[in-house]
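debug: dumping io for the single-chain case to check the tokenizer round-trip. Nothing else runs in this session.
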Amino acid sequence: MVGNAHPTYFLSTAKIKYMTIFALDELKNLVQNSEYPCVSLYLPMEKIGGDTRQNPIRFKNLIREAESRLDELGLRHAEVVNLLQPVMELDKTDFWENQVQGLVIFISPNLFRYYCLPISFPQLVVVGKNFHIKPLLNLINNDGKFYILALSQKNVKFYSGTRYKLNEVEVENMPHNLAEILLEDEFQKGVQHRIGIARGATSAAQHPGSVHGQGSPDREKHEEDILQFCYAVDGALREKLRGEKAPLILAGVEYLLPIYRQANTYPYLQETGISGNAETLKMEELNHAAWEIVAPLFQQEYQDLMAVYLQLAGEESSKITNDIKAIIPDAYYQRIDTLFVPIKQHIWGKFDLENSTVELHPEAEPDDEDMLDFAVIHTILNGGKVYTLEPDAMPSGVKVAAICRY
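debug: decoded output
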């Protein structure tokens, strides 16, 4: 908002959010809920030695640059100071004592987010109509999302993860332990006869792989109870993961994993699991072991899509393009299936939505957007895939490349 209209900027503390992981849902929230002007600040963090004293200094320089950019848009200086006030209030000793490799801050009139993240970024200030999110894509697409089900009879936990971080996720109606299922069964015995059908099934024929233990009846009964428990866990996850395609990895003692596989209905459960007592495995250990399993999957997916692009390029197919002026409207109107962009480069300009035209500038002008970032945002929001590459890894040396849906 520029010119004669001068709003009063106010940020409720309820809008402030600190996070150590950045996921696709968070990206969508940033894009869909921000208001103009959007300020994006990226700052690499020094963690060791005397260089850490430079962090607050570079932080203040970043704020001054953001002030200058906002002044260029025609905002009154008091409005600029008011907008950036929550950022300035971060500059305290305890804040600087709890940093990792990268600090990212997003602020607009109705939203304030900051992220302490496990990857470093080039120092950068971007002010525009949208938040600048391209540097974060390594945390979303290239490194993929996966799930872990940490299974034990006494404790069940479910995690969403990327290469760098795990987050525990609450799952509605998922039993926390075997005892809950046994208590429920005892309750049901009081009101009806228990039938010999596995929980979640309609007939025994639907689950031919029922557990048949060897040895005492007590052992067979215990294994049947565990299978019932696994059916209950799977039923809750089925609702949570409806429509998802991310790989799911089991973690737990070896005898539990094949029992759970009998109950599983999620099609992307991985054959390889993590063996060990899920109650004692640390999150860092789980994260590392899971990434070892899923990394080849994500790398193969990228290689397959790059091979498709190169094949279509050789055929001079109209289904690919490396023209940013064509890619921008294609991304906006949901025509991009896969996008390859250089992570450390920018193409500045504006997109005229009414005429579907793109204006490019050699240097960023006031109110410009990074057109690569614009293409990334709308490709992801419209269900496409984005891969960020080093500039010299781009196919045929192009600045941007896309595979279209049609």
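debug: round-trip ok. The chain has a mean pLDDT of 82.
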